[in-house]
Amino acid sequence: MTQYWLMKSEPDEVSVDDALAAPKSTVPWTGVRNYQARNFMRDQMRVGDGVLFYHSSCAEPGIVGIAQVASTPYPDPTQFDRKSPYYDPASRQEEPRWSLVDVQVVKKTRNLTLPELRTTPGLEDLVVLRKGNRLSITPVEPRHWRQITKLLGA
DNA sequence: GCCAACGTTGGC
DNA sequence: GCCAACGTTGGC
């Protein structure tokens, strides 16, 4: 069964435009160093799952595109790269600690901004809007997915 | 830059 | 296993 997710990216690192410009509009979701977010990618995501591409830590945070999970999970190569900010000296090749999936942008949309999300009736309990939420990957309920994709005309 | 909220680390 | 200290996230 198809599931739905919201995935945060800092546009300074990988924006929706960067992803669109990549081969097959697909980017590896590198740099996740939170176990809960990793577990979503490693244990629950399936190819074809729907993804809301979200820009965070920027002037106008919000949902900026529709994407999909485009690979099964595999080890995040940046954990073994000494020059990467995501290098993890505690992770071993035989037993990688961090996994990721590839994400393919299906459609760039307008920016459905955080203030707009917060004030849209029906989205009050979207996981990413919950107080104190910091998770970079959160599940999205089917009804939220339907409402948001409709709002975006996607 | 500030700071609330949360996650991780490490001493005990 | 507890919990204080510290680090990170991310909106503002």
Automatic annotation (TrEMBL):
Cross-referenced InterPro entries = 5hmC_binding (IPR052181), EVE_domain (IPR002740), PUA-like_sf (IPR015947), THYN1-like_EVE (IPR047197)
| Domain EVE as annotated: residue spans | 3-150
Which Pfam family, just one, is annotated for this protein? Answer: EVE
Gene3D superfamilies, A to Z: ph1033 like domains
Which SUPFAM superfamilies does this entry report, sorted A to Z?
Answer: PUA domain-like
PANTHER family noted in UniProt: THYMOCYTE NUCLEAR PROTEIN 1
Q: What is this protein called?
A: EVE domain-containing protein
